[in-house]
Amino acid sequence: MTEQPHTGTESGHGYISAKDDYLKRLRRIEGQARGLQRMVEDEKYCIDILTQVSAMTKALQAVALGLLEDHISHCVVDAAVAGGSEADAKIKEATDAIARLVRS
User: Fold this and answer.
1) 8 A C-beta contact, residue 68 and residue 7
2) Residue 43 DSSP symbol
3) Which residue has the higher pLDDT, 81 or 3?
4) Cα gap 33→53, rounded to integer Å
5) What confidence tens digit (pLDDT) does each residue in 53-90 have?
6) What's the rounded Cα separation, in Å, for the pair 21 and 2?
7) 19 to each of 11, 15, 101, how far by Cα in Å?
């Protein structure tokens, strides 16, 4: 069976069980971004802004690593059990995602 491209509307992704936690974290990050905008608008000290950028970056990295772990333990493992080209595609997809995260 050929898997369809991900549209974001499928159910059963590995992160689904922690969806509320991810949304909560992303909302906090959104608040951090608004806080950074205010800091620039208020002409705060650059080092203080950079400190907050670093905190926001770490928060985004934590979300990314959690999603990656969920993807590997759910989607990649399921595809590996199924075997064949689906397994190869999921492994390539995961390694490409890891490469993007390492470059960022």
Assistant:
1) no
2) T
3) 81
4) 8
5) 999 999 999 999 999 999 999 989 999 999 999 999 99
6) 31
7) 11, 6, 21
Name residue 78's amino acid: D
Q: 30 burial class (0-12, 13-18, 19+ CB within 10 angstroms)?
A: exposed
Q: Containing H/E element for 27?
A: helix 19-41
Torsion angle in degrees (nearest 10) through CA of 12, 64, 9, 24: 90
Separation between Cα atoms, residue 37 and residue 33, nearest integer Å = 6
Asked if pLDDT for residue 97 goes beyond 70, the answer is yes
The pLDDT tens digits for 6-33 are 434 344 676 777 899 999 999 999 999 9
Rounded Cα gap, residues 92 and 96, in angstroms? 6
Q: How far is residue 78's CA from residue 98's CA, in Å, rounded to a whole number?
A: 19
pTM, 2 dp: 0.76
